[in-house]
Structure formats: structure tokens, C-alpha cells
Design a protein that fits this description.
This protein has helices at about 1-15, 35-50, 55-60, 65-90, 95-110, 120-145, 150-160, 175-205, 210-215, 220-235, and strands spanning about 20, 30. By secondary structure, the protein is mainly α. The chain is elongated and about 80 Å long.
């Protein structure tokens, strides 16, 4: 069931992450993920591996059936593109704030590469990260970009007198865009939680720590271990 539900869920996130609703035309607009979101997705995938949400050594291997390996690889691909689109959902589309948000994500993810994470702590950290970005873009910045002129736009105009507002320029979208983004991020975090439970169910099958250590060995080392065990079993008979 995990092979069917999780990829579909992450593909839905990949589709909705770039979806916007025009402020005037009320039509759907698809915004392609910028290049920086792919870099952010790579850093996030590394964190998911370190946090044990993705377990390459257990989900892909010579001892597993080919279809199982293909299903897991497909799941990795969908997680990657869903991660990129999750960042796309909370990044301002252009202007100075786009790069400020991008730097914020890069700095946070890069520093986290050197921190110790387990699955629970990583999920909590990601929920806070995306939640903060969502509030900044779709609640605070929405007032700044609004054509009607919200309180934040008036404050910004006062503080930035003499500074070109073109550096803060970004397209304005209908409020429905925020609802789509909220639903997208909720699906993404929920998918990561299900992914953690899916990995936990598989690792619970390991009944001895020696088996866990054996599975973490490279393929050549596992073959050497099997040969050594066979040699020990044959020698007494000789």
C-alpha cells in the first residue's frame, strides 16, 4: 500500500506546489520551480537520509526483488520533486525577497547538515521551517503585494522612502493561492510522517543488531561475510 499511496501523495504535492490563482483573472497559473529549489531539494534529501526517513541500504539492494527496488526508487524520485515544489510554494516568485528567502532556506539546510537528527526531530524542524515560511509569504507578504494596499505595504512605504520598490516587486495572486499552499504543505508533511512510519515498519522486522549491521555493509563486504560463514560451516565437516 505504501508503494501506491505515498508516490501519489508526493506527486500531488509536486503538482500543487507550483499552482497559483491570478488576482484579477482568477485563472490557474503554474509557476515552474526555479533552479534554487532543486538545490534546496538535494540538501533536504540528504537530511531525510541522515534522519532515517529514507533508508537506501534497506530499501534498495541486491537481495530485494527487482519490482521492490523500482518501487522504492520511484518513491525517492517523487519525494525529491515534491520537496522542490514545497519550497516553490513558499518562495516569493521574484525580486529581492525571493533571494532573501532562498538564502534563509540554504543557510538553514546547510547548517542542519552538521547537526544530529532523528526522524521525530527532523519532522518537527521541517514543520516549523515550512510553517514559518508560509506565514511570512502568504500572510505578511500578501499584504505587502496586495494591489489594494494593506497595512504592511503602508509601513514598508514609510520605511523604504527613497529606495526603489522594484527590488520588492512580485506578482500578486488571489487569496486562494494561500489555501492551495497550505494544503500542499500539509500533504507534504503528512507524506513525510507516513514515510517515517513505513520505514519503521520495515526496520521492525530486524530482530538482531548483527543483522542491522550486516545490511549496512557494502555489497562486496556482505559477500565476504557470507563466504566466511560458509567456510566456517564447511570446515567442521571436513
Amino acid at each position: 500500500m505504501d508503494f501506491a499511496v505515498l508516490p501519489i501523495l508526493f506527486l500531488t504535492v509536486a503538482l500543487l506546489g507550483g499552482l497559483r490563482v491570478g488576482a484579477e483573472s482568477r485563472t490557474f497559473i503554474f509557476v515552474a520551480p526555479p533552479l534554487v529549489t532543486l538545490l534546496l531539494a538535494v540538501l533536504l534529501m540528504l537530511l531525510l537520509v541522515r534522519g532515517s526517513l529514507i533508508r537506501f541500504h534497506q530499501w534498495v539492494g541486491n537481495e530485494l526483488p527487482p519490482l521492490t527496488n523500482v518501487a522504492h526508487i520511484w518513491m525517492f524520485v517523487t519525494v525529491f520533486f515534491a520537496s522542490a515544489q514545497a519550497f516553490n510554494s513558499v518562495l516569493p516568485e521574484r525580486g529581492l525577497l525571493h533571494w532573501l528567502f532562498s538564502f534563509f532556506f540554504l543557510w538553514t539546510l546547510w547548517n542542519n547538515q552538521f547537526s544530529s537528527f532523528d526522524a521525530r526531530r527532523l519532522l518537527r524542524s521541517l514543520a516549523i521551517l515550512f510553517g514559518t515560511a508560509f506565514v511570512l509569504k502568504h500572510m505578511l507578504l500578501a499584504s505587502l503585494y496586495s494591489s489594494e494596499g494593506g497595512w504592511l505595504k503602508r509601513v514598508a512605504g514609510t520605511l523604504l522612502q527613497g529606495v526603489s520598490l522594484g527590488t520588492l516587486d512580485a506578482p500578486s495572486f488571489a487569496p486562494a493561492t494561500g489555501y492551495i499552499s497550505f494544503f500542499t504543505l500539509t500533504l507534504y508533511v503528512a507524506g513525510l510522517i507516513l514515510l517515517a512510519f513505513a520505514g519503521k515498519d520495515e526496520t521492525d522486522l530486524v530482530v538482531h543488531p548483527v543483522v542491522e549491521e550486516y545490511r549496512q555493509l557494502p555489497a562486496a563486504d556482505r559477500l565476504a561475510v557470507r563466504d566466511a560463514i560458509l567456510d566456517d560451516m564447511i570446515k567442521p565437516e571436513q
